[in-house]
Amino acid sequence: MSTAPDELVRAVEAVLFAADSPMSVAAIRAYVGEGADVPRALDQLVADYAGRGIAPVRRGDRWHFETAPDLARFLRRDREEPRRLSRAGIETLAIIAYHEPVTRAEIEAIRGVQVAKGTIDVLMEAGWVRPAGRREVPGRPLTYATTPEFLTHFGLRTRRDLPGMEDLRAAGLLDPIDVALAGELESGDESD
Fold first, then answer.
1. Is residue 187 part of a domain?
2. Boundaries of domain holding 34
3. What are the pLDDT digits (tens) for 21-73?
4. pTM of this prediction?
């Protein structure tokens, strides 16, 4: 037959459970009363939680609840970190997506600046870009293309689902200079 824990033990348990960081005995006393026998309550909690999934533990002079060490294997997960691409990475990915298969030299010609090797490496590590063979020209440069993971990540069924100029213009994603340049290109095509 188990007996209900006394009010002080329950109060210490509640304070430790709600704490966002480990607490000293003095900090716990500030919540449960200055005259409280907090060490006795902590000893009782350690005994009550023995063999359970969590337990109050002392690290230095501070206490907190911790998962039982023998259960750590159940809590391990691979955590996916969100990827933040640099502007160069976004531009490079867009060029590859719209012009694949494309060489580094072609990417640089479109961007107007040199592409750092690390930029393409980051896109490959993300699983969005892959080597797509070699171009049959002198020097046989490596070409790059997008992957199925790229399509999945961006919610596309095929590359044909990529937004076109009209979609980008309607969404306000083009700079006014880009819009003016696109307009000139369109009007130039009509005059031919």
1. no
2. 7-71
3. 899 999 999 999 999 999 999 999 999 999 999 999 888 889 999 888 888 78
4. 0.49
